[in-house]
Amino acid sequence: MDTIIETVNLTRRYGRQTAVTGLNLQVKKGEIFGFLGPNGAGKTTTLLMLLGLSRPTEGTATVCGLDPVRMAREVKRLVGYLPENVGFYREMDAVQSLEYVASLNGFEGAGARKKIEELLDLVGLGEESGKKTAAFSRGMKQRLGVAEVLIKDPQVLFLDEPTLGLDPEGAVQLINLIQTLNREKGMTVLLSSHNLHQVQKISHRVGIMIDGKLIAEGSIDSLAEEKFGLDQKEYSLEEIYMKYFQEV
Amino acid sequence: MQGLYAVFRKELQDHLSSYRFVILFALISMVSFITSYMAAVHMRENLEALASTRFPFLMLFSTPGAVFSMVQFVAFFGPLIGLILGFDAINRERAQGTLIKVISQPIYRDAVINGKFLAGVATITLMLVAIVLVISGFGLALVGVVPGIEEIWRLFIYLVISIFYISFWLGLSILFSILFRSIATSALASVALWIFLSFFVSLGAEVVANAVAPVDRQDEVRPEAVLENAQVKEMVSLTSPMVLYTDATATIIDPMRKTTRSIILMGPMEELLSARFQNPLSLGQSIIIVLPHIMALMAITLICFSVSYLVFMLQEVRT
Questions:
Q1: DSSP letter at B315?
Q2: Measured between alpha carbons, how far is residue B291 from residues A215, B111, B128, B133, B268 in Å?
Q3: B265 secondary structure, DSSP code
Q4: Does A104 have pLDDT greater than 80?
Q5: Where are the alpha helices (DSSP H) in chain B?
Q6: What per-residue confidence (pLDDT) applies to A242?
Q7: How far is B108 from chain A (nearest CA, A)?
Q8: Chain B residue with the nearest C-alpha to that of A148
Q9: Phi/psi at A22 (nearest 5 deg)?
Q10: Contacts of B107 in chain A (CB under 8 A)
Q11: ipTM reported for the complex surpasses 0.95
Q12: Which residues in chain A have their CB less than 8 angstroms from residue B10's CB?
């Protein structure tokens, strides 16, 4: 499989603090990559650098064959980013909110409207399309956020804590949606999450990041093998994660 | 460009449909209306005396009817329009988490700030043009004077200067909305700076002038001391955008005014000119007198916006 995201020695410092240290990451086209790590480990900073929204102090990144520092706009055309705690304009309803994002992507008119309807149905907000976003529940907001990300038909999805604060049912629905998008549209997904159970369920490979360093990368089976020997199958991702975490 | 246009359109929509715009517009049009009505009534009563003026139409804007004229009113309270349109431009989006979403779309980052600034300028333009047109129509009906071509030109230049003046305050409040994370802080900071620059600088100018170049009243007054005092005072007070604006527009809107300087600072020829010749200045001459003021006003507006632009582009997206 081709590599779609690659970083070489990617480093980001804020003054004296180092948020990301010498990150070498490879994500292959068409996979779901689970990005794990405690709060403040540098996951979001990495995502921002991959999008060209933050400048790396050192090192390079390549996303879809492009350098995010020089070609930020082209990268952002191909990559959909759902930030943690995504916000909405309170006075807009779901359709208006999507229309604004569509216009920022250069989609207007009847084509955009049709696409918006399809997306609202896809994320299950077809009924609520006329409601103001201020009245949306956390789960609805998250689904609307996903719809906004999908408007540009991205090749790659960056999802930062998409299931944070969702009820179990909502979380499962969202995880299923991500899996469907990956299978049917072949989207590469970079998923950062604390919910290890969900990550284990859908990820092809995972990376564990602690204190700005990527300390492990690979399929869940191979990580289990590394830590617990060959009879790995019964270990959950949670146990593997804790093992790595304790070692640091 | 697609991003700039999308942001511009959305911001303009927000401005025009927001309560604060409606309230502000209602307030300002009401006051302008009243001031020019007073001026018009005053003019109608004194039509005999005014028959000799060549530009009665402009007097609708420049004559203080009861308290102040429409031009003075814009000088005092115009900045509020700019401040109110801009003080939460960036920090509100940051607080509600929409800024990161917008700049992760395929647009250049400056589209956000350019779109917001341009939408503000468009709103200001709309407001001022509407008010000037309403007053003009009002004047036609009440006084029955028709503006000549030169008066229309003068009004046009007045509008351009006013748009720049208010845009300066818009740029300043946008800058504060970038610098301060809290909306209340940026609102307070911009209002504080407005009060300082508009009202305290002219008071302070007097104090500074008396400290730097005191005029000794006990002894015989030396003319040089008086001159120096006046120069310092003018220099300090010109740091206020309001003084710049008032000087510039007063000369543009009132052709009889031949200088922006006080009588002390006039040269002998200027004094002679204003004493002997009662003819109005031509438009070109009026412009030449206040060209430095106009240029300075445009320059501070552009500098202010450039600084906000730079700070915004260099700032981290995360908070």
A1: S
A2: 65, 32, 22, 25, 22
A3: G
A4: yes
A5: 2-17, 19-45, 47-50, 56-62, 70-86, 91-96, 99-103, 110-142, 149-179, 183-195, 201-212, 223-237, 241-253, 268-276, 283-314
A6: 86
A7: 7
A8: B101
A9: 45, 55
A10: 73, 76, 104
A11: no
A12: 100, 103
User: From CA A78, how far away is CA A62, in angstroms rounded?
Assistant: 13
Report CA Rg, chain B.
Answer: 22
Distance CA A49, CA B106 (A): 15
CB pairs under 8 A between A and B: 66
Q: Which secondary-structure segment (H or E) carries A96? A: helix A94-104
Q: Is the pLDDT of residue A232 over 90?
A: no
- Cβ of B319: how many Cβ atoms within 10 Å? 11
Q: Select the residue of A86, A89, A104 nearest B105 (Cβ to Cβ).
A: A104
Q: Does B20 touch chain A (CB under 8 A)?
A: no
Of the candidates B14, B97, B106, the beta carbon closest to that of A85 is on: B97
**Domains annotated on chain A, with CATH:** 3-87+155-247 (3.40.50.300)
Q: What residues of B are in contact with residue A104 (Cβ under 8 Å)?
A: 2-3, 6-7, 102, 105-107
Residues A83 and A100 sit within 8 Å (Cβ to Cβ): no
Report d(CA B158, CA A53) in Å as an integer: 42
Provide the 8-state DSSP code for A39.
T
| Burial class of residue A15, CB neighbours in 10 A (0-12, 13-18, 19+) | exposed
Burial of residue B297, with CB atoms counted within 10 A of its CB: 0-12 exposed, 13-18 middle, 19 or more buried: buried
Residues of chain B contacting A86 with CB distance shorter than 8 Å: 97, 101
Helix and strand numbers, DSSP H then E, in chain A: 9, 9
CA distance A137 to B290: 58
Distance in angstroms (rounded) separating the CA atoms of residues B75 and B85: 17
Pairing of strands A17-28, A3-14: antiparallel
**Chain A residue with Cα closest to B17:** A91
Residues 6+ apart with CB under 8 A from A36: A192, A193, A194, A196, A199, A206, A207, A208, A209, A237, A241
Mutation site for B-interface testing, chosen from A70, A96, A98, A100 by largest number of B Cβ within 10 Å: A100
Residue among B14, B97, B316 minimizing CB distance to A86: B97
Q: What is the DSSP letter of A82?
A: E
pLDDT 10s digits, B76-124 = 888 999 999 999 999 999 999 999 999 999 999 999 999 999 999 999 9
Q: Express each pLDDT in B130-177 by its tens digit.
A: 888 888 888 788 877 788 888 899 999 999 999 999 999 999 999 999
